Recover the amino acids of this structure.
């Protein structure tokens, strides 16, 4: 796994951590632009009324139809409701991180999402994040590659990380009203605090390694599938699957809720929505089609590393 | 205002009320099919695991690109959370009503939504509902017509109804994270109980008159605009406005939340979503365009009956 820019000093505070996230944003944007051969990220810097701000970057390219790579570092006071939801002792908070959603042009390239973040209150701090893959067409080979890469990153830090965070992702990226997972999952984690087993440095190094794994993982899947031949049928299905992505993000996603309820910048929060989406009433897939194969695999508890088709 | 099928008996119970709603569904579907000259509603009857069921009808026509006219009559037990949200003394409920959302093909025809419903608990009963208009392009003339018709219905029942329910709609159909109203509003009301001013019969008659006003109101707007000439620019804008419709329904709409959290039939609840929608990052309208005119008018407190452009 390619690694660069991990911070080597031992004192981690808001500034060093948010500076690292900014660098991660720069690196990821640069590598995605290199693939796009022409399209460039459009950048908007913004300030939050309650404190802090961010740097949103959106690309509309040949291979990435619409993609956002956002950095933010915000602070201020939480509403009473939000404080209760997050079960915090105080309402003062600081949050910084990078959020990415890429909607590819080709239906055979999966949608990807990553978030890495650091949260601080007056009493405590923790890291959180996750990365998950939403193929329009499930490819067991691609899912295996994706999970193997994530397991490699996790295993470098703790043998419990992958199984625990994989299950957490299955539960988190679940569209309850459809009884479907959003895609083939990935990993999700929150409240990674300092304790007898982990120092702050070790927690942060895990988050850095995960952030640095984003480009090698996604560029492999993009390069492999970006020129796959598709027609109207596949584009149609892609738009239906994007509809589900919208449903998850607007109905269930805690990050979206947190953003909208803390008066975050709406355009930055909703950059995760696809360029186009479609809803068809009571759409049924054909028997034994690749669309029905996909639906049959959007379940919790799939073991993508071994035998997914058993 | 055309009226038919109002129930003349004095005893209103679950059965007579839900039967009237079924008749309303029949009448509305019949009148919409008459305009479509060929397209027919597709019907699905469904049962709810917890009790009751419904009859969903969806049309994909020439003028109505995607439209749903749903009837349901459900009963059972509410979750503790839902009971608290609704501030009810008991968790047993019965709910019946008709819900309509029509997404027209032509961007100059507005999206319309109506819901009329009756709710019963062990302690109490009430009527609720509303009707609101979401033009892709605001036409003050059409908005005036729409509000005048609603005021006519309201005024036949109580002089306070229109002003009170109009303000309620402004507050309800509001996309908080965009600081925009969903459209030009309409009326919204809930918990219309029996008291010293109104009998159950009078409350129900108001709901019946409103239900019966749907076709004359919408068919006027549809006939007037359905053949207006439009191009790619207008279709593009329509898809963006439909994106906002999705945002309102999935993030803020209490009816959608109630449906999804009480294990309602997902396909029937989400029939309100448009056939296609679009999101463009940080889209800006041109100065002095009809798109910017529209945005400038999506505000609470507009007096559509008199001078909207002052």
């Amino acid at each position: 796994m390619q690694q660069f820019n991990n911070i080597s000093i031992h004192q981690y505070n808001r500034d060093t951590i948010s500076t690292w996230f900014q660098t991660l944003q720069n690196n990821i944007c640069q590598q995605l632009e290199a693939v796009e051969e022409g399209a460039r990220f459009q950048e908007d810097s913004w300030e939050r009324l309650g404190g802090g701000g961010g740097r949103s970057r959106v690309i509309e390219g040949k291979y990435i139809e619409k993609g956002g790579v956002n950095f933010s570092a915000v602070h201020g006071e939480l509403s009473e409701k939000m404080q209760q939801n997050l079960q915090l002792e105080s309402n003062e908070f600081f949050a910084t991180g990078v959020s990415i959603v890429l909607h590819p042009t080709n239906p055979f390239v999966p949608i990807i999402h990553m978030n890495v973040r650091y949260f601080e209150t007056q009493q405590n701090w923790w890291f959180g994040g996750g990365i998950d893959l939403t193929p329009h067409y499930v490819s067991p080979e691609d899912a295996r590659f994706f999970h193997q890469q994530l397991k490699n990153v996790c295993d470098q830090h703790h043998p419990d990380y992958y199984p625990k965070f994989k299950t957490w992702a299955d539960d988190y990226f679940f569209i309850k009203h459809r009884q479907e997972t959003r895609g083939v999952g990935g990993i999700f984690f929150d409240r990674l605090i300092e304790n007898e087993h982990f120092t702050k440095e070790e927690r942060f190094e895990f988050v850095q390694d995960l952030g640095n794994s984003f480009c090698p993982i996604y560029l492999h899947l993009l390069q492999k599938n970006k020129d796959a031949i598709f027609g109207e049928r596949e584009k149609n299905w892609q738009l239906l699957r994007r509809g589900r992505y919208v449903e998850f993000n607007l109905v269930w996603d805690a990050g979206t809720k947190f953003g909208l309820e803390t008066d975050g910048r709406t355009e930055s929060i909703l950059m995760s929505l696809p360029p186009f989406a479609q809803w068809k009433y009571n759409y049924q897939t054909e028997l034994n089609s690749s669309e029905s194969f996909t639906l049959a695999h959007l379940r919790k508890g799939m073991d993508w590393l071994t035998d997914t088709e058993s």
Q: What stands out?
A: The radius of gyration of chain B is 19 Å.
